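Q: What would this chain look like folded?
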Amino acid sequence: MQTLWHISSGPAGRSYADVCVRHGIALLGPGDAGPWSPERDDADFEGPAVRRFASEPEVGDAMLLRTGLAKIRAVGIVAGEYQHLETFDDVNGFDLQHARRVRWSELPEEYDFGEPVFGQSPWRFSRVQDGRVVDYTRRFLASPPTHWQEAALPPLPPEEPPLEAVPLPLRGVVAEAQDLGSLLWDRDRFGAHPSEDEMVAHFVVPFVRALGWPPERIAVKWRHVDVALFRELPRGPETCHVVVEAKRLGAGVEGALEQAKGYVDALGLPGDVVVTDGIRYRMYARAKEFAPVAYANLARLKRPAGDLFNRLARP
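A: My prediction, written as C-alpha coordinates:
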Protein backbone atom coordinates (compact mmCIF):
# COMPACT_ATOMS: atom_id res chain seq x y z
CA MET A 1 0.00 0.00 0.00
CA GLN A 2 1.23 3.47 -0.85
CA THR A 3 -0.26 6.62 0.72
CA LEU A 4 -3.68 6.32 2.39
CA TRP A 5 -6.25 9.06 1.87
CA HIS A 6 -9.78 9.67 3.12
CA ILE A 7 -12.57 11.53 1.34
CA SER A 8 -15.96 12.63 2.64
CA SER A 9 -19.17 11.24 1.18
CA GLY A 10 -21.22 14.21 2.36
CA PRO A 11 -23.30 14.86 5.47
CA ALA A 12 -25.60 12.15 6.78
CA GLY A 13 -28.75 13.68 5.31
CA ARG A 14 -27.21 14.25 1.88
CA SER A 15 -24.72 11.42 1.48
CA TYR A 16 -23.53 10.64 -2.04
CA ALA A 17 -21.64 7.47 -1.08
CA ASP A 18 -23.94 5.37 -3.28
CA VAL A 19 -23.05 7.50 -6.31
CA CYS A 20 -19.32 7.10 -5.66
CA VAL A 21 -19.46 3.35 -5.20
CA ARG A 22 -21.85 2.72 -8.09
CA HIS A 23 -19.76 4.65 -10.61
CA GLY A 24 -16.27 3.90 -9.32
CA ILE A 25 -15.44 7.50 -8.58
CA ALA A 26 -14.31 9.83 -5.82
CA LEU A 27 -15.96 13.26 -5.93
CA LEU A 28 -15.09 16.57 -4.36
CA GLY A 29 -16.50 20.08 -4.40
CA PRO A 30 -16.92 22.90 -4.88
CA GLY A 31 -16.70 22.26 -8.60
CA ASP A 32 -18.57 25.20 -10.10
CA ALA A 33 -15.40 27.32 -9.99
CA GLY A 34 -14.01 25.20 -12.80
CA PRO A 35 -11.08 22.79 -13.14
CA TRP A 36 -8.16 22.99 -10.76
CA SER A 37 -4.77 23.94 -12.16
CA PRO A 38 -1.45 24.80 -10.46
CA GLU A 39 -1.95 28.46 -11.31
CA ARG A 40 -5.18 28.73 -9.32
CA ASP A 41 -5.45 29.83 -5.70
CA ASP A 42 -6.82 27.63 -2.90
CA ALA A 43 -9.33 30.36 -2.11
CA ASP A 44 -11.09 29.61 -5.40
CA PHE A 45 -11.99 26.20 -3.97
CA GLU A 46 -12.69 27.07 -0.31
CA GLY A 47 -9.36 25.76 0.94
CA PRO A 48 -6.58 23.34 -0.02
CA ALA A 49 -8.63 20.12 -0.27
CA VAL A 50 -9.20 20.36 -4.04
CA ARG A 51 -5.53 21.12 -4.72
CA ARG A 52 -4.43 18.13 -2.69
CA PHE A 53 -7.05 15.88 -4.28
CA ALA A 54 -6.00 16.93 -7.78
CA SER A 55 -2.24 16.92 -7.38
CA GLU A 56 -1.07 14.62 -4.59
CA PRO A 57 -2.61 11.09 -4.82
CA GLU A 58 -0.96 8.61 -7.16
CA VAL A 59 -2.56 5.75 -9.02
CA GLY A 60 -2.32 2.75 -6.69
CA ASP A 61 -2.79 4.76 -3.49
CA ALA A 62 -5.48 3.58 -1.10
CA MET A 63 -8.54 5.68 -0.29
CA LEU A 64 -11.32 5.43 2.28
CA LEU A 65 -14.86 6.66 1.65
CA ARG A 66 -15.62 8.35 4.94
CA THR A 67 -19.03 8.84 6.56
CA GLY A 68 -18.79 11.14 9.56
CA LEU A 69 -15.83 11.33 11.90
CA ALA A 70 -15.36 7.65 12.74
CA LYS A 71 -16.95 5.50 10.01
CA ILE A 72 -16.11 4.35 6.51
CA ARG A 73 -18.39 3.00 3.78
CA ALA A 74 -15.79 1.57 1.38
CA VAL A 75 -12.08 0.93 0.84
CA GLY A 76 -10.67 1.82 -2.54
CA ILE A 77 -7.65 1.95 -4.82
CA VAL A 78 -7.00 5.13 -6.81
CA ALA A 79 -7.32 4.17 -10.47
CA GLY A 80 -7.04 7.43 -12.37
CA GLU A 81 -5.71 10.97 -12.54
CA TYR A 82 -7.65 14.10 -11.67
CA GLN A 83 -10.58 15.06 -13.91
CA HIS A 84 -13.19 17.81 -13.89
CA LEU A 85 -16.48 16.17 -14.93
CA GLU A 86 -19.61 18.23 -15.49
CA THR A 87 -21.60 14.98 -15.18
CA PHE A 88 -21.44 15.47 -11.39
CA ASP A 89 -22.45 19.13 -11.22
CA ASP A 90 -25.55 18.27 -9.17
CA VAL A 91 -25.23 15.32 -6.81
CA ASN A 92 -27.89 15.70 -4.12
CA GLY A 93 -27.50 19.43 -4.65
CA PHE A 94 -23.70 19.46 -4.40
CA ASP A 95 -21.40 20.61 -7.23
CA LEU A 96 -18.84 17.77 -7.21
CA GLN A 97 -17.11 18.04 -10.56
CA HIS A 98 -13.61 17.33 -9.17
CA ALA A 99 -13.18 13.60 -9.71
CA ARG A 100 -10.84 10.62 -9.71
CA ARG A 101 -11.65 7.06 -10.72
CA VAL A 102 -11.44 4.67 -7.75
CA ARG A 103 -11.97 0.92 -7.53
CA TRP A 104 -14.16 0.67 -4.45
CA SER A 105 -14.82 -2.36 -2.29
CA GLU A 106 -18.03 -1.54 -0.45
CA LEU A 107 -18.23 -2.90 3.08
CA PRO A 108 -21.22 -5.07 4.10
CA GLU A 109 -21.99 -2.34 6.62
CA GLU A 110 -20.24 0.82 7.67
CA TYR A 111 -17.13 0.14 9.74
CA ASP A 112 -17.01 2.19 12.92
CA PHE A 113 -13.61 2.87 14.48
CA GLY A 114 -15.39 3.91 17.68
CA GLU A 115 -13.92 7.39 17.94
CA PRO A 116 -13.21 10.33 15.61
CA VAL A 117 -10.07 8.89 13.99
CA PHE A 118 -10.33 11.39 11.12
CA GLY A 119 -10.35 14.40 13.47
CA GLN A 120 -13.05 16.54 15.01
CA SER A 121 -13.26 18.79 11.93
CA PRO A 122 -11.69 16.79 9.10
CA TRP A 123 -10.97 18.19 5.67
CA ARG A 124 -13.20 17.02 2.86
CA PHE A 125 -10.11 15.24 1.54
CA SER A 126 -6.85 14.56 3.33
CA ARG A 127 -4.17 12.04 4.13
CA VAL A 128 -4.91 9.51 6.88
CA GLN A 129 -2.63 9.96 9.89
CA ASP A 130 -4.15 7.62 12.47
CA GLY A 131 -2.16 4.40 12.83
CA ARG A 132 -5.23 2.31 13.64
CA VAL A 133 -6.86 3.30 10.37
CA VAL A 134 -3.69 2.60 8.41
CA ASP A 135 -3.37 -0.84 10.01
CA TYR A 136 -7.03 -1.68 9.33
CA THR A 137 -6.64 -0.70 5.68
CA ARG A 138 -3.43 -2.70 5.21
CA ARG A 139 -5.11 -5.82 6.59
CA PHE A 140 -8.22 -5.24 4.48
CA LEU A 141 -6.24 -4.87 1.25
CA ALA A 142 -4.26 -8.04 1.98
CA SER A 143 -7.32 -10.13 2.81
CA PRO A 144 -9.07 -12.13 0.10
CA PRO A 145 -10.95 -11.63 -2.06
CA THR A 146 -8.67 -9.10 -3.73
CA HIS A 147 -9.87 -9.37 -7.34
CA TRP A 148 -11.75 -6.06 -7.01
CA GLN A 149 -8.43 -4.22 -6.84
CA GLU A 150 -7.86 -4.86 -10.55
CA ALA A 151 -11.45 -5.20 -11.79
CA ALA A 152 -12.76 -3.16 -14.70
CA LEU A 153 -14.17 0.20 -13.68
CA PRO A 154 -17.90 0.75 -14.15
CA PRO A 155 -18.91 3.18 -16.90
CA LEU A 156 -19.53 6.77 -15.96
CA PRO A 157 -23.07 8.10 -16.38
CA PRO A 158 -23.65 10.39 -19.35
CA GLU A 159 -23.87 14.10 -18.73
CA GLU A 160 -27.47 15.26 -18.63
CA PRO A 161 -28.15 18.07 -21.12
CA PRO A 162 -29.69 21.30 -19.87
CA LEU A 163 -33.41 21.85 -20.16
CA GLU A 164 -33.90 23.44 -23.55
CA ALA A 165 -36.75 25.76 -22.58
CA VAL A 166 -38.39 26.57 -19.26
CA PRO A 167 -42.19 26.41 -19.54
CA LEU A 168 -43.56 29.95 -19.61
CA PRO A 169 -45.58 29.71 -16.33
CA LEU A 170 -42.45 28.54 -14.47
CA ARG A 171 -40.03 31.18 -15.68
CA GLY A 172 -40.61 33.57 -12.80
CA VAL A 173 -40.03 31.06 -9.98
CA VAL A 174 -37.09 29.47 -11.82
CA ALA A 175 -35.48 32.87 -12.36
CA GLU A 176 -35.91 33.67 -8.66
CA ALA A 177 -34.34 30.35 -7.64
CA GLN A 178 -31.39 30.97 -9.92
CA ASP A 179 -30.99 34.59 -8.82
CA LEU A 180 -31.29 33.95 -5.09
CA GLY A 181 -29.78 30.48 -4.83
CA SER A 182 -26.19 31.53 -4.22
CA LEU A 183 -27.25 34.30 -1.81
CA LEU A 184 -29.31 31.93 0.35
CA TRP A 185 -26.30 29.63 0.72
CA ASP A 186 -23.93 32.47 1.70
CA ARG A 187 -24.01 32.81 5.48
CA ASP A 188 -21.74 35.87 5.40
CA ARG A 189 -24.06 37.85 3.13
CA PHE A 190 -27.44 36.35 4.05
CA GLY A 191 -27.06 34.97 7.59
CA ALA A 192 -28.51 31.64 8.74
CA HIS A 193 -30.17 29.57 6.05
CA PRO A 194 -33.89 30.32 5.65
CA SER A 195 -36.29 28.05 7.51
CA GLU A 196 -38.39 25.43 5.75
CA ASP A 197 -41.47 27.61 6.32
CA GLU A 198 -39.79 30.46 4.46
CA MET A 199 -38.88 28.17 1.57
CA VAL A 200 -42.47 26.90 1.42
CA ALA A 201 -43.81 30.45 1.29
CA HIS A 202 -41.29 31.90 -1.15
CA PHE A 203 -40.67 28.93 -3.45
CA VAL A 204 -42.81 25.80 -2.97
CA VAL A 205 -46.23 27.45 -3.09
CA PRO A 206 -45.32 29.73 -6.03
CA PHE A 207 -43.88 26.68 -7.81
CA VAL A 208 -47.01 24.54 -7.50
CA ARG A 209 -49.20 27.56 -8.34
CA ALA A 210 -47.18 27.93 -11.54
CA LEU A 211 -47.85 24.27 -12.29
CA GLY A 212 -51.57 24.98 -12.33
CA TRP A 213 -52.69 24.27 -8.77
CA PRO A 214 -55.25 26.82 -7.53
CA PRO A 215 -55.02 28.02 -3.92
CA GLU A 216 -58.10 26.12 -2.78
CA ARG A 217 -56.36 22.84 -3.70
CA ILE A 218 -53.11 23.69 -1.91
CA ALA A 219 -53.06 23.08 1.84
CA VAL A 220 -50.17 24.25 4.00
CA LYS A 221 -49.54 22.50 7.33
CA TRP A 222 -52.45 20.14 6.71
CA ARG A 223 -52.58 17.33 9.29
CA HIS A 224 -48.83 17.78 9.90
CA VAL A 225 -48.10 17.63 6.15
CA ASP A 226 -46.09 20.65 4.97
CA VAL A 227 -47.95 21.00 1.66
CA ALA A 228 -50.76 18.81 0.29
CA LEU A 229 -52.19 19.01 -3.22
CA PHE A 230 -55.76 17.85 -3.85
CA ARG A 231 -57.28 16.52 -7.07
CA GLU A 232 -60.70 17.88 -6.13
CA LEU A 233 -62.72 19.32 -3.31
CA PRO A 234 -63.54 18.74 -0.52
CA ARG A 235 -60.01 18.39 0.76
CA GLY A 236 -59.53 15.07 2.54
CA PRO A 237 -57.28 12.01 2.57
CA GLU A 238 -59.17 10.36 -0.28
CA THR A 239 -58.64 13.36 -2.61
CA CYS A 240 -55.00 14.04 -1.71
CA HIS A 241 -52.92 13.78 -4.87
CA VAL A 242 -49.40 14.66 -3.70
CA VAL A 243 -47.74 15.13 -0.31
CA VAL A 244 -44.88 17.65 -0.25
CA GLU A 245 -42.43 17.41 2.65
CA ALA A 246 -40.18 20.45 2.96
CA LYS A 247 -36.78 20.73 4.62
CA ARG A 248 -34.72 23.80 5.27
CA LEU A 249 -32.03 24.64 2.75
CA GLY A 250 -29.00 22.41 3.28
CA ALA A 251 -30.79 19.78 5.35
CA GLY A 252 -30.94 17.35 2.46
CA VAL A 253 -34.25 16.56 0.80
CA GLU A 254 -33.44 12.86 0.43
CA GLY A 255 -33.53 12.43 4.18
CA ALA A 256 -37.15 13.65 4.30
CA LEU A 257 -38.64 10.63 2.54
CA GLU A 258 -39.22 8.49 5.62
CA GLN A 259 -41.03 11.30 7.41
CA ALA A 260 -43.25 11.88 4.37
CA LYS A 261 -43.98 8.15 4.03
CA GLY A 262 -45.03 8.12 7.67
CA TYR A 263 -47.65 10.79 6.99
CA VAL A 264 -48.89 8.96 3.89
CA ASP A 265 -49.24 5.66 5.72
CA ALA A 266 -50.79 7.15 8.87
CA LEU A 267 -53.42 9.08 6.93
CA GLY A 268 -54.02 6.43 4.30
CA LEU A 269 -53.20 8.86 1.51
CA PRO A 270 -53.19 7.52 -2.04
CA GLY A 271 -50.81 10.07 -3.56
CA ASP A 272 -47.14 10.33 -4.40
CA VAL A 273 -44.50 12.10 -2.32
CA VAL A 274 -42.29 15.07 -3.18
CA VAL A 275 -39.45 16.13 -0.91
CA THR A 276 -37.93 19.56 -1.37
CA ASP A 277 -35.85 22.34 0.10
CA GLY A 278 -37.64 24.84 -2.11
CA ILE A 279 -34.96 24.68 -4.80
CA ARG A 280 -34.57 20.92 -5.34
CA TYR A 281 -37.57 18.62 -5.81
CA ARG A 282 -37.44 14.81 -5.82
CA MET A 283 -40.58 12.77 -6.47
CA TYR A 284 -41.23 9.24 -5.19
CA ALA A 285 -44.04 7.08 -6.59
CA ARG A 286 -46.28 5.35 -4.08
CA ALA A 287 -47.30 2.77 -6.72
CA LYS A 288 -43.62 1.82 -7.13
CA GLU A 289 -42.96 1.39 -3.40
CA PHE A 290 -41.73 4.98 -3.21
CA ALA A 291 -38.98 4.55 -5.79
CA PRO A 292 -37.58 7.89 -7.01
CA VAL A 293 -39.11 8.74 -10.38
CA ALA A 294 -38.33 12.40 -11.10
CA TYR A 295 -35.99 15.22 -10.02
CA ALA A 296 -35.55 18.91 -10.69
CA ASN A 297 -33.16 21.50 -9.38
CA LEU A 298 -34.65 24.91 -10.18
CA ALA A 299 -31.24 26.55 -9.91
CA ARG A 300 -29.61 24.04 -12.29
CA LEU A 301 -32.25 22.76 -14.67
CA LYS A 302 -31.49 19.62 -16.71
CA ARG A 303 -33.66 17.99 -19.34
CA PRO A 304 -35.12 15.35 -16.94
CA ALA A 305 -36.64 18.21 -14.92
CA GLY A 306 -39.34 18.34 -17.56
CA ASP A 307 -40.56 14.95 -16.36
CA LEU A 308 -41.02 16.25 -12.82
CA PHE A 309 -42.89 19.29 -14.11
CA ASN A 310 -45.25 17.01 -16.02
CA ARG A 311 -45.78 14.61 -13.12
CA LEU A 312 -46.38 17.38 -10.59
CA ALA A 313 -48.62 19.53 -12.79
CA ARG A 314 -52.29 19.67 -11.87
CA PRO A 315 -54.00 16.68 -13.54
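Residues 4-150 form a domain with the ph1033 like fold fold (CATH 3.10.590).
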